[in-house]
User: Fold these one by one.
Assistant:
Number 1:
Amino acid sequence: MKIFTLIAFIMMITSFTIKAQEGGTMDQFKINLLTPGIGYEKKLGTKGTLDLTATGYFSWVGSDTYIKPSIDIGYRYYYNILRRESRGRNIKGNSASFLIASIGYTHRNITKSKYLYNTNPIGFDCKLQWGIRRTFNWFYLEGKAGGCKQWWHHTDLNITTQEPIGFLGELTIGFLIQ
């Protein structure tokens, strides 16, 4: 019941804060639902933003639950936002296609586990992705796809492993507060 009250409260607040946007990108605060977390985009020009996101990744292996906090920082280039605006399309909440280059840090598992030996590394990653965001009043849907290079440092073993460059797809659903 508390979660539904919180979601209703956030929806009520954000429905009054979305305002008209002109001239490209804008500053905005984001609340993510699928991967619980928060984010902030700071306008750096008519087509660019600095994107800072903090999330918590959840996974289950058998009876163990893993929660790994993560932080990402990146530059988003909204290459078609001015064209969308000139055609009269919705650009509220930076509703456009973009390219993003980002780096990230994933902390070790913060829950107790009987498998800490193999499942408790610290991670670093570099990502280059293409994405699209669509905003519907206070609600947004965002998809990203691209390449990712990861490094994992196993502190208990004092070794660092690398993952080959791989494909990464992300889907984000959340609320915007501007």
Number 2:
Amino acid sequence: MTEEFEAEIDISINSKIEQAGEKQRIDQKAQGKFILNADTSVTILYEIEGQLVRLEIAPEKTRAVYFGHGGKTALVYDIQMDRVASTYATDQGTIDMFVKTKIFDFDQVDATGSLHIKYELFADEDSLGKFDLTLQFSPVVSTID
């Protein structure tokens, strides 16, 4: 068993989205917490636009679960499975969908690393869009005045 480890981190998030023929890029920054759990899984916690986000990266580093919207959104990224059932929260309620993960790459040493996921969302057989997410993180550097 690995000893648990926690650190405050700076996070840089780059999202590329392709939906209905339109392309969009979103860059965001946040501060959060990196947790290396005793089972070697990783938890990353941060807030974006007032919403708490929790990423759970499995010990084998081939799967992650994204929890957002107060726990109402749960997207499962798993490179070893064709499509994984997931749910997404909207103002009108939750939508059942599937996630097809094309790339899942997680690199981490202590509290520094990156997560890169390319995936496509589906409602039944209809594509809702293609997404390319890169999350980079490193320990918060404190300054002494």
